[in-house]
Request: fold
Amino acid sequence: MGRGVLMESQLRIALFGGNYNFQADGANKALNRLVGYLERENIEVLVFSPTNEKHAFDAPGTVVSIPSMPIPFRSEYRIGTGLSRRVKQKLLDFKPTLIHLSAPDIIGHSALKFAERENIPAVASFHTRFDTYFEYYNVGWLAPWCRRQMAKYYKRCQHVYVPSPSVGDVLQSQEIVGENIRTWSRGIDRNFFNPDKRDMAWRRNLGIDDADIVLTFVGRLVKEKGLNEYADLVDSLRQRGLPVKAMIVGDGPERGRIEGTLPGAILTGHLTGPDLSRAYASSDIFINPSLTETFGNVTLEAMASGVPSVCLRATGTSDLIQNGENGWLIDSPDDPDWTEKTAELCTDKQLRRQMGRRAREISADYNWDRIMQNLVGNYRQVLTRYRQTV
Reply:
């Protein structure tokens, strides 16, 4: 049985998270939320992650720093370079009953090998369609190789937790995962993201007239988030003479380019706390042009804020948007509806209000406590089944 502690019933989770406390992306927010929940439930958890002097937020839990280096061309992220002797000893001393992996990177592979050697069950959560990124950086030929490597990795895990059913369908169709798939959805704080946070004075201070229609993008300013498609949409609406204002919430390496592409756009930079909830609620239409989503946290945040969405049809997003009810799903930026449906919302205030109310209603289905309870139930199922097979 090795050094595993499978005869113990208590859950002790070793969580491997990339950039856990210094990048406020959807994956890290979900992992932070998970650690906070586990601690409130008195479930022991220890986080292993690359670290940085800069913290994007106060992260819950105890973090063991993993040796890492900046990712070439994306130095704001770091990638672990392996499990050092010190880190392995920390793992052994902690005696985890379950190892939770968050990415098929160097650290993920190293931790999976450790789990197999020590007879500790390993599960993985799926956060990012890495295989879809290559097209944006002119190396699309790498995508099939990436999918093969992902399949080898995920099929060795007891469970793979996907954020939405549509992601699971795609991964199964591409044979990246098998029957070990489960859904770990995402929740929303509907008190924090709330239509009541709308602030017309704040809009005016940004130079937005009351009659302007604010089209908001929220996310990292990187190519794979669909910034070109967003800019083209805003341009098309301007050419029709519609009073649209582009508001871009976020930061990243593409900021300079988008400033040149969309003159007059309001770039708020990265927002957190009340500033973020106010920006969402003070928008008129939320635009999600990303085709690489696995869930679409930003879309759910807009929904809870009572804002209708126009989104390109992507995994995750397509589970959130009920077409024609709380927004529009468009198959492609080349589809005339990408512009037409947005223009319709721009000119029909009543439709915006109706879709916004429905968006707010649907967001109530995404309850964090219920979602986390389900995940912990899956953890226990893995532990019980694994004990029976060793």
Notes: The chain has two domains: 12-187+367-389, 195-363. The first strand starts at residue 12 and ends at 16. The domain at 12-187+367-389 is CATH 3.40.50.2000 (Rossmann fold).
